[in-house]
Design goal:
This protein has helices spanning 4-14, 17-23, 41-54, and strands at residues 24-31, 38-39, 57-68, 71-81, 87-99, 102-110. With 116 residues, the protein is α+β, with helices and mostly antiparallel strands. It starts with a helix and ends in a 6-residue tail after the last strand.
């Protein structure tokens, strides 16, 4: 699992939904600000498709990682461009829980939630 958190954010930056799917457990739960919990791999992927449409340019840079057992917190920054124009940037933390090398829980915490 040591490189899986970094790999997840690299896949986000490259918009690789197939690669992201390979990281998610079938019953994965994604908690994103201002939404209800997204339960199940397909719902998470559907949300990511919508996110990628809204932000056709969006790249992440991992700033730091703290891990303990099957739990990981990733500090990241991102920047990109919204579909309707305008630059976007943010900074946040993502809490990740793993089982058998797959993500079972993801929760995002970030500074600017006004864009959503």
């Amino acid at each position: 699992m040591s490189n899986k958190p970094v790999s997840f954010f690299e896949l986000m930056s490259s918009r690789d939904l197939e690669g992201l799917a390979s990281h998610l457990a079938e019953e994965a739960v994604f908690r994103f600000p201002k939404t209800q919990d997204l339960v199940g791999r397909e719902k998470v992927l559907k949300f990511l498709r919508l996110l990628f449409r809204r932000y056709p340019e969006l790249t992440f840079e991992v700033k730091g990682i703290v891990s303990e057992g099957d739990r990981t917190v990733v500090h990241w920054t991102n920047r990109g461009r919204a579909r309707k124009g305008g630059e976007y940037s943010n900074e946040g933390l993502t809490w990740m829980e793993w089982r058998g090398g797959e993500l079972i829980f993801i929760s995002d915490f970030f500074k600017d939630t006004e864009a959503f």
